[in-house]
Design goal:
Length: 229
Amino acid sequence: MSFLFEPPAVPSLPIIGSDAHFPMHRIYCIGRNYAEHAKEMGAQAVSRANPVFFMKPADAIVAGGGDIPYPPATHELHHEVEMVVALAKGGRDIDAARVPDCVFGYGVGLDLTRRDLQAAMKAKGLPWDVAKGFDASAPVSSLRTVGDIGHPAHARLSFAVNGEVRQDTDIADMIFAVPEIIAELSRLFELKAGDLVFTGTPAGVGPLLRGDRVSAELHGIATLEGRIV
Ligand code: MN
């Protein structure tokens, strides 16, 4: 067997303290996972019974930041800073207590969003794909291994544009904590080594413009620097 053409390269992320890269499988995201953000988006009271999940293609990754292209077909590109969890093991119906065994490491990323398209899709009750899954919609930092930092329950998560802080919270404020997010996802999908999970954004989302310098930090764990071009 041979391929008809050269298969695309496997998207990957650098690992802090290692020459090896983390090969990526899928990118899962949870929405409305901080109460203040759900409120600013006009959501009703968030139900713990119904986490909101969506996906981005693995090749939407912008590994380590740097130049981030402003996407086409929008006049309202929004930043959403999020803690990102990288899985070294997967499975189906994973018990929340077993989730830490599956985690390879942690990083910080941007769930970039074409907010105008998302609003239009929401108004029609249509899927969010065009708002969330566009090319270069997932800048993510290098990963910090569990061996380095364990499983942080508290960490400041912040995001600045041109030096001005726009989002600032602690990951302890998540509605669904990491074990719950991954346990829930594993009831819907068979998770695999190489999966990344975006864990939701705090309040303070807003527009990005060409030329903006962006800086995301999960304090003590990972940083992501970039520029919108
Ligand atoms: Mn998000």
